[in-house]
Amino acid sequence: MILDKEHLRKNLDEVIWNIEQARISVSEHHIVKLVTVAKYTDVENIATLYELGQRAFGENQVQQLRERMAQLEDLPLEWHMIGRLQKNKINNLIDLRPALMQSLDSLDLAREMQKKLEAKESKMNCLLQINSAREETKAGVSPEEAIDTYLQIKEECPSITLKGVMTIGAHTDDTKAIQASFETTHSVFQSLEKEGATICSMGMSGDYELAIKCGSNLVRIGSALFK
Ligand SMILES: *Cc1c(COP(=O)(O)O)cnc(C)c1O
Asked: Nearest CA to 81 among 200, 89, 145, 190?
């Protein structure tokens, strides 16, 4: 559905206001980046959000990412890959040169990406995805393995530039459990700051304020902007 500009402005203002309140409650120096997740919305709405000042957009499929980058190539947008990457799509993703690949979810995938990046003499900024609530259905490394895996990728995969961590909050209505999954991820992030980690990507439409209060500095928001 194509939403009109005033409607999108209202949604965006509301989300930015909420982010602002949450980040100020942490510290006035705590800066949070908003990445708009456009996967469920029409490409026209991305262009309108650009007019409203939004620059960073995320997609969860390589195919969709490619189509939208092509449709909007005249706009100076920053694109993020946030979904599960199949090995047979690695080369396609490399060719798109996303600003940040947020869903690097295993050492195995990192090794495959390294081979293909090296062959193309290319590099990619990535976040290590953490399965912070240890859910069967979710991708990512366990919190216990996260630090070792991060260091191993740094050592073995020189074409991958790790920038930090990403998680999807626990899939439950239990706020305490969601908070625990964010706190777990944030503590991994803090341990990795001395390794150069600067991005802690946590929080979606239903839980971004909580995520920010737990230390997130990048939120990925879709439905709250396109309702
Ligand atoms: C879809 C998606 C989001 C955004 O979800 P909303 O609840 O619509 O805000 C954020 N992160 C990832 C990884 C997603 O797949």
From this structure: 89
